[in-house]
Design brief:
The protein has four helices and 18 strands. By secondary structure, it is an alpha+beta fold. The radius of gyration is 18 Å and the shape is globular. It catalyses: (2S,6S)-2,6-diaminopimelate = meso-2,6-diaminopimelate.
């Protein structure tokens, strides 16, 4: 099988084409190929499929084999891939995902795709759509208890479910211990990504995300959107912010008409062939 390895700030993906809609076991492939010791290594697979309603369709399979509805860093890598491989020739394209259509727009530097700005749609706060089990009409600055410790969290849907926690410092030990417990709490019937957010000032936040189905990643695009929206909603920042991850930054705009735009780099790492046994 031919593949291309791509990365969005270190959130890395293996891109595979399935334009003939062949019956492939994506979950098995994801577990095999994403393995960092016995496979190519990646946080997930991005599959290129044909679409009946958009220019192209993106499927995203996490490294544990579960399928996600959407992926922000993945959408940027995917748009660069389909453009550079002649699958979509438009600089602004529509991409079907399981959470609806997103609109990536390529930003060129010296005729090469450097960054991608993705129109991500609206953030959703309705508990039944996130989903989160609560009798409230939204889950903003709510209290949850983990191992006797209390956390104040905000949950929202940005294509995929996110739960945002504001912290005074980013501590990876806490993230890898608490993240998986929150991800699998019973109140989140489809699980949740968990974003740990340090507010630097009204224009800058630092984020690390414990991802549903992939664990601690170097960056998360939908996580950047969710964190920026939660920060502005709770009056910690302005509506447009730079989101800092370990290996680079994303720029998030949450417009007054409630749309989210995500801008950042997308890079090809290498291409190759792999025998699937
Ligand atoms: N890294 C992604 C999100 C990928 C999906 C996530 N793991 C989930 O299952 O919800 C991003 O950049 O948004």
């Amino acid at each position: 099988m031919k593949f291309t390895k791509m990365t969005g700030l270190g959130n890395d993906f293996i891109v595979l084409e399935n334009l003939e809609n062949k019956e492939l076991e994506y979950d098995v492939l994801a577990r095999k190929l994403c393995d960092r010791h016995f496979g190519i290594g990646g946080d997930g697979l991005l599959i290129v499929e044909p679409s009946g309603i958009a220019d192209i369709k993106m499927r995203i399979i996490n490294s544990d084999g579960s399928e996600a509805e959407m992926c922000g860093n993945g959408a940027r890598c995917f748009a660069k891939y389909v453009y550079e491989n002649g699958i979509v020739s438009k600089g602004k394209m529509s991409v079907e995902t399981l959470s609806g259509i997103v609109m990536p727009e390529l930003i060129f530097e010296d005729d090469v795709v450097d960054k991608v700005r993705v129109h991500m749609g609206n953030p959703i706060f309705r508990p039944d759509l996130i989903p989160v089990k609560t009798d409230k009409n939204q889950f903003v600055e709510e209290t949850i208890k983990i191992d006797g410790k209390t956390y104040i969290v905000t949950s929202l849907l940005v294509g995929v479910p996110h739960t945002v926690i504001f912290v005074n410092s980013i501590d990876e030990n806490i993230i890898v211990n608490v993240g998986p417990l929150i991800e699998k709490l019973q109140i989140f019937p489809r699980g949740t990504n968990v974003d740990f957010v340090k507010v630097e000032d009204e224009n800058n936040i630092t984020v690390r995300t414990w991802e549903r189905g992939a664990g601690l990643t170097l960056a998360c695009g939908t996580g950047a959107c969710a964190s920026a929206v939660a920060s502005a909603l709770t009056n910690r920042t302005m509506r447009n912010v730079y989101v800092h991850f370990k290996k680079g930054d994303l720029y998030i705009e949450w417009t007054s008409d409630n749309n989210i735009y995500l801008t950042g780099k997308a890079e090809k790492v290498f291409t190759g062939d792999i025998d699937i046994v």
